[in-house]
Amino acid sequence: MKLLRLLFLLLLLGTISASPPPAAVAGKKEAYKHYFKGAFFYGEERFQSALGHFRQAYSAVPEEFNFALSLGLCLSRVGKAKEGLSIISKGEQSFSERDPEFAKKRALKFFIEGMIYLYGEQYHQAIPLIKTSIRLQEEVKKNQTLSIFYNALGYAQLMDQGKNAHRKNRLGSHLHVHRRDMLKSRDNFAQALLFDGYNQKAKHNYKVLSDSLALEQDVRMGSLSEEDFDTIEIHPTYGNLPYNASKLKKFTEYDEIVFLLDISGSMVMEKVTCKDQTRFQVMKETALYMLEQMDPNVKVGIGTIGGDCGTVPRLWIPVGSRSRKDLKYDLEFLVPDGTTPLLNILQETPSLFSKSSGKNRSIFFISDGANICRAGGVDICEWSEGLTRKNITLNVLTFLYASLANTNAFAEYTCLAENTDGEILYMDINRCKLMPFNFNLVHSCRPEIPEFRRVDCWGPAVKNLWGIFLE
Description:
α3 runs antiparallel to α4, α5 packs antiparallel against α6 (81-92) and α9 runs antiparallel to α10. This protein has 17 helices and 13 strands. The chain has two domains: 22-222 and 443-451, Tetratricopeptide repeat domain (Serine Threonine Protein Phosphatase 5, Tetratricopeptide repeat, Alpha Horseshoe), CATH 1.25.40.10; 245-431, Rossmann fold (3-Layer(aba) Sandwich), CATH 3.40.50.410. It is α/β, with parallel strands linked by helices. It has a seven-stranded mixed beta sheet, with helices on both faces. The protein has a four-stranded antiparallel beta sheet with strand order 1-2-13-12. The chain has helices spanning 2-13, 22-25, 28-43, 47-60, 65-77, 81-92, 102-119, 123-140, 143-159, 179-195, 200-212, 266-269, 279-293, 324-332, 342-348, 380-389, 407-418; strands at 167-169, 172-178, 256-262, 271-272, 277-278, 299-305, 316-317, 361-367, 392-398, 424-428, 433-437, 451-454, 465-469.
């Protein structure tokens, strides 16, 4: 009898690793697994496969607006635009003006609705919606997003040729477009480049129209998108950092930061190919580099994830309790240990922050795996929602690729970051660069104008007529 009681107690504490019960599987994490799979297939333009996963994610958590937007847009790609618009309209009902992201969500809502009409070739309906999204996005002031919006607007204006559509003659199926419409679209592609000089679709569209109209490409490139910088930086002390380690500086801009470091065995067994060093070594140097980059007033703590589901962390240092010099020493002599009992440790990590609720706080999590512990059947995605109420953002750096083989891990990373307004980076081990990971619906909406050339279908008297040739 005593043995049974002891086993029961151990199960409650999550110190015995076992498969989750059905109730845990049916939670939000399962929805995020479908969301990740849907994103994967959508990125490969396998829209029918993506649709099934987006439906399951949305059915499980219909109040998650990203799920509604993803499903709505995917429906438009398989010819079900009306259903897609209906789902987005339902999602809008959950908006609150008290939400700090209210303006951002409204801009996104109008833009995705516009894209649904655009993909349905109803350009006259797409244009006013995209214009509204631009007006709202200007309040948010995010240049890369505005660039994408302007590119979509230019495309919709160029393709909006009304009854002049799909004329077919000896040249094949094409649209007729006048010079004035081309100039209008070109102006919007130029505006897109002013906001993001590395928007490749906008750059292509602007060049095609400039060449067709025999106009000089005189647009002044605006702010460059950080994701496209290829500058190679070699740190004098930490030679195993990714080449674009400067990206990490923005993750140091908090009042309090806790490094949550995965010290499991796989971090030593697997190498970062381009550096010929273990993931563990790259992780240590990354943490040391970030520590060096932080403002001296930032309070720092460290927690480690290793051993098994009942292992006491090797490092468990509350923010501000040790000097920077001591923290560097702790990191330098850190050694690997065991598996990845993520959720058990993650649930306790908020205790490493100060008691001040007004502080801007972050957990910076570096890992190459997914949670392996039951933790009392807690759903990691549901649990993560409570971090926002504690003013904690969770940012992730992973050594895993975003592939179906890593669905479990990326489902966890995605909900941890999205639910706390954090970000996910992954290490490209071949190019030695940090790359952003997120299924960004907006980034997938970058239409490129089709083949374009001058035509004389209306006779030699009409000199300003071009044809857009359709597939």
